[in-house]
Design brief:
Keywords: Cell cycle, Cell division, Cell shape, Cell wall biogenesis/degradation, Cytoplasm, Peptidoglycan synthesis, Pyruvate, Transferase. This protein is α/β, with parallel strands linked by helices. The chain folds into 2 domains: 206 residues, Enolpyruvate transferase domain (UDP-n-acetylglucosamine1-carboxyvinyl-transferase, Chain), CATH 3.65.10; 209 residues, Alpha-beta prism (UDP-n-acetylglucosamine1-carboxyvinyl-transferase, Chain). It contains 14 helices and 24 strands. A 4-stranded mixed β-sheet has the order 22-23-1-24. α5 runs parallel beside α6. The radius of gyration is 21 Å and the shape is elongated. The mean pLDDT is 95. Bound molecules: uridine-diphosphate-N-acetylglucosamine (UD1). Uridine-diphosphate-N-acetylglucosamine binds next to α1, α5 and α6. The site of uridine-diphosphate-N-acetylglucosamine has 21 residues, from α1, α5 and α6.
């Protein structure tokens, strides 16, 4: 197993290119199951989660060819010969549930393993299932699998989400493109990844209106065709690397970044005293040596502050001047990075879904352990400005969501390397 070694330093200077969004790619890939014609994604990120989705689609009979060192994924689902998504793959990645809606919509039947719990909370799929039932699916839960049927095809319907779930909106949106009649999704998630999915589906021939708002209307069509689509910029990778100069000082340009992807996050950076400006090539983040100001953060569905940036923001606030309160409203157990940051000298008190962070002058390097994807990168960020060396172990979490993290941070002057554990 590998670890990452980070030695504190700074300031950072230079450019970091931002990849295509993991979470967009993980929903665009299953969209291939909706059509017999090829779907090609460009600007795909090179990540282990993408390999897991490639394996899952392959197990169903889809062909996924990785071109240009993984930046292009050429997919074809003309020969789907298995409609069961097996537990062995699904348990590795919750996004696997996104094959359910497309398979059911196209062929009228699908069996998908329930994803089970994960480190950051229970994460049930009840909203996915209710949405498909509203489109006429007959569902049966047996032996840890969802058995879904729609012998006469799905039909349009009204879906009212109690909570604006990202994945459930994506599953419903994909399924509705091939349902007979009109589907209205109320309280739909508004994340940029959903807008990206709708744009891709529209290129394939789907009729969709309202993506990016809380109400999405889909007029079902008989069949979808092929398309080529660039994956939207990864706003979480963007926000993560914006925090590197914010924590270490310096000036870094994030190539491909746009403010509208990270508006709520930029407002908090501004309140903390970090300047962000947009140029033709991306976003430039600058910290001029002044103190970080404490800020309060509450995670919310888009356009609110993203839960996927909460751990990284906490790393910044550990050395702020004053006390910050971070409230996690999306996942019930998403402060596992806090005990690790405390090992590095942070002063954090967690009570349920609220973490109170009292800023300290400096963090100190320490051996720490990654517990999930975003927690792992928050520890790297913390290590970038800590005195001495930080060793982050269990970095397989990191490989799920960040490509070339060592190369990207080294290029702007960070002292970071990947080592094999002995
Ligand atoms: C997606 C992202 C993830 C991000 C999250 C919230 C992908 C692959 N992952 O996850 O990185 O952190 O959005 O922005 O895109 N819930 C239910 N029932 C359901 C579905 C969800 O109770 O059927 C709950 C979850 O347990 C969680 C909350 O709703 O507490 C948010 O989940 P959701 O928006 O569905 O997130 P994901 O799509 O899983």
């Amino acid at each position: 197993m590998d670890s990452i070694l980070v030695r504190g330093g700074g300031p950072l200077k230079g450019q970091i290119p931002i990849a295509g969004a993991k979470n967009a790619c993980l929903t665009l890939m299953p969209a291939t199951l909706l059509s017999e014609e090829p779907l090609t994604l460009t600007n795909a990120p090179r990540l282990s989660d993408i390999k897991t989705m490639t394996a899952l689609l392959g197990s169903l009979g889809a062909e996924v060819t990785s071109l240009q060192d993984g930046k292009v994924l050429a997919m074809s689902s003309h020969n789907i010969n298995n409609h069961t998504a097996d537990y062995d793959i699904v348990r590795k990645m919750r996004a696997s549930i996104l094959v359910l809606g497309p398979m059911l919509a196209r062929d009228g039947h699908a069996i998908v393993s329930l994803p089970g719990g994960c480190a950051i909370g229970a994460r049930p799929v009840d909203l996915h299932l209710k949405a498909l039932e509203a489109l006429g699916a007959e569902l049966d839960l047996k032996d840890g699998y969802v058995h879904a049927k729609a012998p006469k095809g799905l039909r349009g319907g009204t879906i009212n989400f109690d909570f604006a779930s990202v994945g459930a909106t994506e599953n419903a949106l994909m399924a509705a493109t091939l349902a007979k009649g009109t589907t209205v999704i109320n309280n739909a998630a508004r994340e940029p990844e959903i807008v990206d999915l709708a744009e891709c589906l529209r290129k394939m021939g789907a009729q969709i209106e309202g993506e990016g708002t809380s109400t999405i209307t889909i007029q079902g069509v008989d069949r979808l065709g092929g398309a080529t689509h660039p994956v939207v910029t990864d706003r979480i990778e963007l926000g993560t690397y914006m925090l590197a100069p914010a924590i270490c000082g310096g000036q870094v340009e994030l190539l491909g970044g746009r403010i509208n992807l990270v508006q709520a996050f930029c407002e908090k950076l501004d309140a903390a005293g970090i300047s962000v400006s947009e140029s033709a090539n991306g976003l430039t983040v600058k910290r001029n040596g002044g103190d970080i100001k404490a800020v309060d953060v509450t995670t919310e569905p888009f356009p609110g502050f993203p839960t996927d940036l909460q751990a990284q923001m906490m790393a910044l606030l550990c050395t702020a001047n004053g006390t910050s309160v971070l409230e996690e409203k999306i996942f019930e157990n998403r402060f596992m990075h806090a005990p690790e940051l405390i090992r590095m000298g942070a002063n954090i008190d967690v009570q349920g879904g609220v973490a109170t962070v009292k800023g300290v002058k400096r963090l100190k390097g320490a051996p720490v352990m990654a517990t999930d994807l975003r927690a792992s990168v928050s520890l790297i960020l913390a290590g970038l400005a800590a005195d001495g060396e930080t060793k982050v172990s269990r970095v397989y979490h990191l490989d799920r969501g960040y490509e070339h993290v060592v190369a990207k941070l080294s290029a702007v002057g960070a002292d970071i390397e990947r080592v094999k554990d002995t």
